[in-house]
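User: Last request for today: this protein with copper (II) ion, please.
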Amino acid sequence: MKYLLAALAVSMTASAASAQSCPSWQSGDLTLTNAWSRATIGPARPAVFYVEIANAGSVDDSLTAISTPLAEMPMLHETVVTDGVATMPHVSDIPVPAGSTVSLAPGGFHGMLMGLTAALAEGESFPMTLIFERSGEVTIDVGIAAYAARGPACQPDDS
Ligand SMILES: [Cu+2]
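Assistant: Here's the final one, the structure of the complex with copper (II) ion:
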């Protein structure tokens, strides 16, 4: 048993070293990390935007808009499944309550980048500005993962 645990620890260290850890950004009491998107086949299809936002403060905040030079019409969406059918209604803002972490992730809140000015290529990155009701604007760098990726290409910081 001791031997197995030691082997597991070694393999986890090895996989963590193979991918760079995801960068993070601060804006007031907010910390943003695990920002990623997916490669697109061409500019005709919309792209997605995912990120994790932690609010360490004592005041509620909310994400009211996103903006990037890569898309003419970036929107905030939420994936909702009703009677087995998934729809993506537009949301006017995404709450980031005090002391909690909100994830824009597959199956839930996400950024939808319509009107792309260029296709998104795996391994590249693009700037994204997030506008918060209280914390103002913060511009982050979004890494582009593979076409069918289910998470960021960088190593998420789960601590
Ligand atoms: Cu959407």
